[in-house]
Amino acid sequence: MMGFDYERHEIDLLTEEFRLALEPSEDRRLSMPALDLLDRDKCLGYIGRAGEVFEGQTIAANASLFAKRYSYLTIASSLYAMSAMDKGLDYSIENAHIESVWRGSAWLPRIRLEKWEANRPEAGKREAWRERIVASVFADNISRAWNAISAYVPVSKAVLWENAAIYVFWLYENRFLEGLDEERQAIVRSDLAYLVEAPPHLFGEKKNPLGRYYGPKVATVASEEPIRIRKTCCFYYLASDDPEDYCPTCPKINHQPSGVM
């Protein structure tokens, strides 16, 4: 694997914990080049097949639930490598493949990259390097996927972007901090602060689509822990047997505030 400039333990961590795949999956029905999302027929066909997993009542619900999976598999490994390892790979949609992986009955797809030429920031130039990594993940991949999906399916880009945003926040505020020393944790927190304020062109948008959803966590009577209430509904309840089975942060829940964190 030429150009894969990672230590063995780093590769293991990215593949075992953050949804990076090194080899194609045997399940080709739900595996495909991410670039196929930009083709109307291929995109709708794929969401249709994924909908058999989600069992959503509408194609919009299935598209939103797929976007959650796609957000996580794209964001987790790329941004962890950037923030925790100071290493980057090409996450543009042309270089990415969706690889279908099952854990029992749970569908947990991964991302596989065609080219594996790793890069690191030059001394004193991490900020410029970080811009390139962020653009690769968002402007060159996620934004293009969301533009296509929202054009082919009656689902708002706001829903798709908030699906991505909630994972960015959760990963940076929780998972990415685990096992790191204080110096590296400070870099992780600094990167999150940057992401919610970064120039919108790095996301392929006119406004920063993460900052829109980043706000204080609120203590409510509906949750034991302070939460960041969503602005949009992801339609999870449309894939549940219970018509009121909402996500804990869903705006459809009556979140009567009991204080602000």
From TrEMBL:
Q: What residue stretches are annotated with the Aerobactin siderophore biosynthesis IucA/IucC-like C-terminal domain?
A: 64-210
Spell out the molecular function terms from Gene Ontology.
2 iron, 2 sulfur cluster binding; catalytic activity
Q: Where is the Ferric siderophore reductase C-terminal domain?
A: 230-252
Task: Look up the domain of life of the source.
Answer: Bacteria
The UniProt entry, under Pfam families, shows: FhuF, FhuF_C
Protein name as catalogued: Ferric siderophore reductase C-terminal domain-containing protein
Organism of origin is: Paenibacillus pasadenensis
- Give the classification, highest ranks: Bacteria, Bacillati, Bacillota, Bacilli, Bacillales
